[in-house]
Automatic annotation (TrEMBL):
One Pfam short name: SMI1_KNR4
Spans traversing the lipid bilayer: none
Residue ranges occupied by any Knr4/Smi1-like domain in the UniProt entry: 1-125
Organism: Gemmata obscuriglobus
Superkingdom to which the source organism belongs: Bacteria
Name of this protein: SMI1/KNR4 family protein
Length: 134
């Protein structure tokens, strides 16, 4: 993904992307797209600027019902959704840096958990799955 697309995401969302996520998009978006083509059933993190913008704006609108925890707190404004499994669950990063690398939100349980310690860990797993599929 080019710098102009990353800047467009940041402009549309009104804040800078976390550095590691920004670097991941710049350096690895094309690779993730290629892997997705070889693993069509695998949910991957979004690599399209329009999808990232659209889904984050929608998450902000749904914040009252995308609740977290037993107390059903609204979706935190610092959470940036970066992908979905297509079943209502989301991968996210905390823009505020208070949480680990890539988190996962389970919509039925209203729980968040660490899924990947970093984008590099995510990418290593994805690469391995692609190799295993060959």
């Amino acid at each position: 993904m080019g710098e102009a697309e990353v800047a467009r995401i940041e402009s549309a969302l009104g804040h800078p992307l976390p550095g590691e996520y920004r670097d991941f998009l710049r350096r690895h978006a094309d690779e993730v797209r290629r892997i997705k083509a070889t693993l069509p059933q695998r949910a991957v993190l979004w690599t399209d600027a329009d999808a990232i913008i659209r889904e984050n704006l929608a998450a902000r609108q749904r914040a009252a019902w995308m609740t977290v925890g037993e107390d059903e707190e609204p979706w935190p404004a610092s959470y940036l959704v970066v992908g979905t499994n297509g079943a209502g669950d989301y991968w996210f990063v905390d823009r505020g840096g208070a949480m680990w690398g890539v988190g996962f939100y389970q919509h039925e349980a209203h729980e968040v958990e660490e899924r990947y310690g970093s984008f590099e860990v995510y990418l290593a797993e994805l690469r391995q799955e692609a190799r295993d599929a060959q």
